[in-house]
Structures are given as C-alpha cells and as structure tokens.
C-alpha cells in the first residue's frame, strides 16, 4: 500500500482515555467521502471503544473573506440568498460550535440532501433550513454562520491539512495517544479489513470486536443509510439487506426515499437522542 505514510503529531490534540485518535480528512460533498464514511460507521460500531475521531474539512476553496462578507449581507437583507462552494464548510463549522453531535447531525442532513438532490447545498437559505431539520438551535446557527469563530475553525482545518501534507481526500491519519510517535497516514480508500488491521497494529494487541446493533438500534444511531451500507455493516447480500429493510418499512419504522441515482432508508421521526 503505497499510500500509507508516517506523519508528524498534530498541532493540537485532545488527550482522551481511548488510545487511538483518527483525523478523518474529507470534502463533505465528494462521493468518495460518502464511501469512507460508510467504512467509518462500521468501524465505530465494532471498535469505537478503542478510538476517538474528528472530521477535518479539506475542501479546496478560494475567496473565503469575500463570501463571509456576503453572508453578513443576508442578515441585513442586502442579499435575498447567495450560493458559494465555501458555504457548506462554513455551515458545518457553525454547527460544530453547538457541539460534535450537533455537527455530525448537520453533516448527515447536508449529505442526505446532496445525495437526493432535494436542496441546493451551496445555498445560504437552504443551509439555514437544514440546521432546523438537524435539530440545531437555528438562531445560534445563523449568528455563527460566517462568524469569525466559524471562519477560524475552517481555516484551522485547512492549516492541519497542509501541515500533515494531505494531498488526497479522503484520508485518515491514525495517532496513538499513549505512544510518542508519528501518526500513520492512509490516503484514499481501502477495504474495511485494512483499517481494522491498522488499529490492531497500532495497539500491538488483539482487539475485541463489539457485537453489531440490531437494525432498529442502527437507525436510531445513524438515521439514514443506503442498502449497500446496511449490507456492508452486517456482511450480508444486497438482496438480504433489502428484504430486512422492506420489513421495517412495512412496520412504519423507516421510510424509503430515492431519486434516479440513489435510494436511502431513513428513520421515521428521529429523536436525536444519541
């Protein structure tokens, strides 16, 4: 695997009781980000007791100062709406100011609309509406969207991306918090077994896999999944996964939403209690 390299310790890192920390570098609207996040979901379910993780936004953007000035114009009514490639990343950072769980809910809602094409994910107005859908404090979100704090947080992500020499997105960098050594950078996407092997090698011990949750518990946690994701998580065929999903749809536990290119299975009336 030529795309696995050693990198230096990050500039700042929160020490935790879990020995491994993952820096997950993504462009949140890139199709490859969805693929890597699918693998990460299974890794969380089976081995999250060994690691913490954080997303680092690595979107290629320009004219960031210009777009934040235009966002402030929306507050005063100078613009009815604006669109810009920077807006989704700034929106995620605004959501992050309400906590990691809030940010993760917002990212999932953003990606859901991106996959289904149900909203313009580069639109300021649409991104504000998504905050309400993700059960965020919408007033706080609007205040933070385009704020200096959100911009600095995004700039920090871009700085970390440069410092770790991330030249391919998505990538994951693994750090062992208990050992003072370089992190292991894995550029691109590999099979699930590779990531499990890396965890075991970094811990230098046999790791214990947690049992997978039931279908109902799975949707309580992630709220929407594709058929492929469900099949991958449970190591079953696509047809078996679809049969189980249709059962739960008939039981009114989940609903199917789709367009010409993708089908999502979504929890009905999510509680956001995780």
Automatic annotation (TrEMBL):
It is found in: Cytoplasm. PANTHER family: CLPXP ADAPTER PROTEIN SPXH, GLUTATHIONE S-TRANSFERASE KAPPA. This is ClpXP adapter protein SpxH. Keywords: Cytoplasm. Adapter protein required for efficient degradation of Spx by ClpXP under non-stress conditions. Interaction with Spx stabilizes Spx and exposes the C-terminus of Spx for recognition and proteolysis by ClpXP. Its main location: cytoplasm. InterPro entries: Adapter_SpxH, Thioredoxin-like_sf. Coiled coil: none annotated. It comes from Ureibacillus terrenus. Belongs to the SpxH family. It comes from the Bacteria. Signal peptide: none annotated. The keyword Nucleus does not apply. Interacts with Spx. The keyword Ligase does not apply. One of its GO terms (cellular component) is cytoplasm.
């Amino acid at each position: 695997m030529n795309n696995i390299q050693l990198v230096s310790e990050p500039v700042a890192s929160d020490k935790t009781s879990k020995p491994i920390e993952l820096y997950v570098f993504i462009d949140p609207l890139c199709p490859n980000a969805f693929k890597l996040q699918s693998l990460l979901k299974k890794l969380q379910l089976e081995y999250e007791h060994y690691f913490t993780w954080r997303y680092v936004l690595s979107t290629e953007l320009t004219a960031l100062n210009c777009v934040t000035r235009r966002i402030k114009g929306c507050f005063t009514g100078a613009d009815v709406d604006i669109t810009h490639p920077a807006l989704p990343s700034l929106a995620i950072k605004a959501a992050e100011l309400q906590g990691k769980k809030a940010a993760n809910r917002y990212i999932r809602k953003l990606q859901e609309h991106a996959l289904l094409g149900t909203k313009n994910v580069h639109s300021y107005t649409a991104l504000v509406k998504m905050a309400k859908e993700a059960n965020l404090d919408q007033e706080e979100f609007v205040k933070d969207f385009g704020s200096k704090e959100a911009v600095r947080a995004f700039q920090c992500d871009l700085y970390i991306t440069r410092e770790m020499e991330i030249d391919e997105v998505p990538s994951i960098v693994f750090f062992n918090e208990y050992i003072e050594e370089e992190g292991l950078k894995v550029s691109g996407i590999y099979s699930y077994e590779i990531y499990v092997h890396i965890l075991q090698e970094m811990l230098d011990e046999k790791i214990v896999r947690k049992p997978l949750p039931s279908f109902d518990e799975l949707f309580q946690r992630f709220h929407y999944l594709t058929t492929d994701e469900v099949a991958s998580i449970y190591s079953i065929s696509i047809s078996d996964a679809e049969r189980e999903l249709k059962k739960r749809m008939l039981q009114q536990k989940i609903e199917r939403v789709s367009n010409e290119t993708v089908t999502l299975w979504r929890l009905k009336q999510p509680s956001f209690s995780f």
